[in-house]
Amino acid sequence: MPSKVLVVTGGGDCPGLNAVIRAIVKRAAQEDDWEVIGSIESFNGLLHDPMEIVVLNEYAVAGIHVRGGTIIGTTNKGGPFAWPVKNPDGSWTPVDRSKELLQKIQDLSIDAVISIGGDGSQKISQKLFDMGCNIIGVPKTIDNDLSATDFTFGFRTAVQIATESVDKLVTTAASHNRIMILEVMGREAGWIALHSAISGGAEVCLIPEIPYDIDLVMQKINSRFSNEKGFVVIVIAEGAKPKGGAVTGTTSQEAGYQNIRLGGVAYKLEQEIKDAGCEASIRVTVLGHLQRGGIPIALDRLLATQFGVKAFEMVLDKDFGKMVSYRHPYIVAVPLAEATKEYNFINKDSYLLQTARGIGMSLGD
């Protein structure tokens, strides 16, 4: 009987997920008697009745490294520790099905699990490991918010998409003497916003780590206009907020989705700028899920492939309870507990912030 490894992709989709899956399968194919199985929509596939699992062989993964998303699906709702169950009154109650999940893994004779996901997914990985599951984590998030790795795959593709959007907004802003506001993803960390703002040449960048002062934003805007001529491009992360204010979002009504649904901060900023007396024309662009989709750039495919190969080799070494990590120039393994201990915020002394200030960019502080 072959040894079996289960692969799951959890959390938001991300360019490069398929490249990881492909690398795991192709590395496993170099060994004798290994079978790779995929669970549809993270661990949900095992918990569904009937189960939704697929065999992942070299035929199934041929050419998928150039595709965005994930061929085995993903979800950011519920999970084995908070499975949503609908009550008669229409409300939802979270139920812990983790023991049932582990029993199913045992019943399927699965020797190891590779969980590809971000901060929330790896916290689930840690809990399952504490319960005795032979699990390995692979970091995935476009927000680049896992502190135990220098970069996560998908991040640089998202930055490329955002930067190209800034490039396009610069030309239309200059043509119309406008203020263009671009809202990008970044719930608690502003890595996408800061990277794309610097790369694209934006004049203002507002991130969650630095609550902004609208008066200071206006100083930068006013410095860019003379006799109603001029333009400004502002990049703002969805989790940015004014000093003394709160993030802009709504409570989700989707079962099992526990995060605040962020969005709309760019329109809020537009109104704040108008209220501050700005008479220039303003337009807003919300990039949204465009940052998650499409073909992963070469750097993300490369990193994803390195992660996939390393993850399977950790399975061979029985190096469980750890997450694959990129620590330049090496691909290493770090304990899951370390990987999820600290969120990867932009430090106030960050070289990127120094660079932004060095070219005269306003950060609203």
Descriptive account of the structure:
This protein is an alpha/beta fold and 365 residues long. It folds into 2 domains: 3-153 and 296-339, Rossmann fold (3-Layer(aba) Sandwich), CATH 3.40.50.450; 156-293, Rossmann fold (3-Layer(aba) Sandwich), CATH 3.40.50. The protein is built from 12 helices and 15 strands. It has helices at residues 17-28, 44-47, 58-61, 98-107, 119-130, 155-176, 191-200, 214-223, 265-275, 298-316, 336-339, 351-358, and strands at 3-9, 34-39, 53-55, 83-86, 92-95, 112-117, 135-139, 178-184, 204-206, 232-237, 249-251, 260-262, 281-286, 322-327, 330-335. The strands form 4 sheets. A 7-stranded mixed sheet has the order 3-2-1-6-7-14-15, sandwiched between helices. A 4-stranded parallel sheet has the order 9-10-8-13, sandwiched between helices. Strands 4-5 form a two-stranded antiparallel sheet. α8 links the parallel β9 and β10. The longest helix is centred in the middle third of the chain and has 22 residues, at 155-176. It is elongated, with a radius of gyration of 22 Å.
Question: Count the strands?
Answer: 15
Q: Which strand order does the major sheet show?
A: 3-2-1-6-7-14-15
SSE pattern, N- to C-terminal: EHEHEHEEHEHEHEHEHEEEHEHEEHH
Q: How large is the count of helical segments? A: 12
Number of spatially distinct domains:
2
Q: Helix coverage percent of residues?
A: 25-40%
Examine the coordinates and then state which fold CATH places here, giving the name of the CATH topology of the largest domain.
Rossmann fold
